[in-house]
Amino acid sequence: MQLHDLTPAAGSTHSRKRVGRGNSGKGGTYAGRGLNGQGSRSGGTKGAGFEGGQTPLAMRLPKLPGFKNPRRIEYTAVNVSTLEVKFEDGAVVDGASLKAAGITKSEFEPVKVLGDGEITKKLTVKVDKVSASAKAKIEAAGGKVELPC
């Protein structure tokens, strides 16, 4: 079976009701629009946010300074003290192992290792970012830091 062989189930679709095509069927004369007034005219709807002439909410609220960058990357912060507790000596710290240890929710979320606390274990850290103090502590303990770029 291919995509062009698929058809909707019998009775699940209906043809569009064509109105305003004469009085022999339903929907003649006024075509469901009633008599006079805004709704009977073509283009006779007000836009989204129109509040009947009252100043709309979007115009009553102030313009706040700044903006939110849609491309901002939120990193999950992990301290070296957490790595000390959660990992064995000689372990590889990457997305999958952080998820397995319950530190992150997904193995693909961006992680930055920060330098709070002490570390004595020799770890290989493969994450997105590492602070300078964390890198110094990991390397002083005999570990290795591998960044993606």
UniProtKB/TrEMBL annotation:
**PROSITE patterns (alphabetical):** RIBOSOMAL_L15
* Residues in Large ribosomal subunit protein uL15/eL18 domain copies: 78-146
Classification via InterPro entries: Ribosomal_uL15, Ribosomal_uL15/eL18, Ribosomal_uL15/eL18_sf, Ribosomal_uL15_bac-type, Ribosomal_uL15_CS
**Location of region: Disordered:** 1-65
Q: Which Pfam families match?
A: Ribosomal_L27A
Q: Write out the biased-composition intervals (Gly residues).
A: 22-52
Q: What GO biological process term is on the record, naming one?
A: translation
Q: Which GO terms describe its cellular component?
A: cytosolic large ribosomal subunit
- Tell me a Gene Ontology molecular-function term this record carries: rRNA binding
Q: Which UniProt keywords apply?
A: Ribonucleoprotein, Ribosomal protein, RNA-binding, rRNA-binding
- PANTHER family with a match to the protein in the record: 50S RIBOSOMAL PROTEIN L15, LARGE RIBOSOMAL SUBUNIT PROTEIN UL15M
Q: How would you summarize the oligomeric state and partners of this protein? A: Part of the 50S ribosomal subunit.
Which family does the UniProt entry place this protein in? Belongs to the universal ribosomal protein uL15 family.
Q: Which HAMAP family match?
A: Ribosomal_uL15
Q: What does this protein do?
A: Binds to the 23S rRNA.
- Its recorded name reads Large ribosomal subunit protein uL15
Species of origin reads Collinsella stercoris DSM 13279
